[in-house]
Amino acid sequence: MVHEKNTPGNQVSRRSFLKDGALAAAGFMIVPRHVLGGKGFIAPSDRLRVAGIGVGGKGESDLEEIAKGPSDIAYLCDVDTRRAANSVKRFPKAKFYKDFREMLDKEHKNIDAVTVSTPDHQHAVAAMAAMQLGKHVYVQKPLTHDIYEARMLTEAAKKYKVVTQMGNQGSSGEGVRLLREWYDAGTIGDVHTVYCYTDRPVWPQGIPWSDMKAPVPPELDWDLWLGTAPYKDYIDKLVPFNWRGWWDYGTGALGDMGCHIIEPPFRILGLGSPKSVECSVGSVYVDEFKRGYFPESCPPSSHVILKFEDHKGKEVTLHWMDGGIQPERPEELGSNEVMGDGGNGAIFVGTKGKMMCGTYGRDPKLLPTSRTEQVKVPQKYARVPEGHYVQWVNAAIAGYNSDKNKAISSPFSIAGPLTEALLMANLSIRSFDIRKEENGKTSYPGRYVKLLWDNKNMKVTNFDEANQFVKRTYRQGWSLGV
Fold first, then answer.
1. Residues paired with 97 in a beta bridge
2. Coiled-coil intervals in this record (predicted)?
3. Is 146 part of any domain?
4. 459: buried, middle or exposed (CB in 10 Å: 19+, 13-18, 0-12)?
5. Dihedral through CA 19, CA 20, CA 21, CA 27, nearest 10?
6. Is 284 in contact with 222 (CB distance < 8 Å)?
7. Can you say whether the dihedral through the CA atoms of 182, 184, 186, 192 is positive or negative?
8. Number of structural domains in the chain
9. What pTM was estimated for this model as a whole?
């Protein structure tokens, strides 16, 4: 668990907290809900006390949605007071912190659950710190930045018996349930190929890191924002949005949209760990026949092919395309009909037919689209009328062993393996850009290679250089604590 801050004069440490007898005793006397939770359990309070980590932008809207349930937003934490301003105004009774480690050390006994809506590179350390204190967690997508982190959070949720949910709200939607009911009824036969595509990135990618150092805004704690990432000087236009295109902080188009678009086939077909992954990526040329080399930045576009086995043991090929690249329009789709939602979507190709949907599994359709109204199948899966956020709130109040938690849409037991699959695709993309210089010659050994994956040991078996991207080395002062 991360509790060491490397800022002089403000050392916050879990170890020092445990050495404090009075606080340790107080913490011992607080019995977490997850210990008491179970069928028939009546919580000591019918409201969930929530702390938000990262409360601007998406974090702001997350808290707005969570507040619609039986919850109290008790604490706010953000490294940038500019971004936090709206949430501070919306929840004036909530105490504000800049460092989540300090907040958890000082306030853990008054917190039931934590939301994490930071940049990707901070998801795992914040979520793990909360779970190790017995707090239920809601973590924005993608669950983590690295494959190793996803595996560790999945295991931690079970170990600490906390209620978890990833922020891929489409998993609570009508669309994915209807698609699944069509598939289970044999409407399109066995799916053997899936195409997933997005118009992302909608931020700069495939560019060099700026060499123009800029002054750090006074409202931003830059050292805390960097967190686990290597230290770099602050540059303009990285915060609050464009960090997504840099490998130190973000996970590119796959991280941004993959959890929304790949989740339907992942759940419907019962996919797990990929057996193999290969890719091609778009190029940026800086001169005649001179391809730009910007390994710190995600590429402008990519096409990734992942091989899975479905729940029946049959092979499924999943294509991921980003940067506006799209698959061929199905022949059953009219020439003027919208494919997916236009810029994004998923197409399922089965032995007896096809179906498609947009982002979040929305607007599901059988192909040809006239079949959508003609085909009727029984409702098999319960809907989530309260929505993704309030579902988590209610399950957290009910407790880990409750029926409400068993029915939750995107627990880490599902979200973790889904995130690992997405990050396997990114591992292939990053391997494509590995460059070696030997005897004055340049080579790219990771290009045009199909990576074979050993899921149990979390490693690529046929190209060892790719394994450097499975697990990052954190900056000094930061640890996952496992």
1. 77
2. none
3. no
4. middle
5. -100
6. no
7. positive
8. 1
9. 0.90
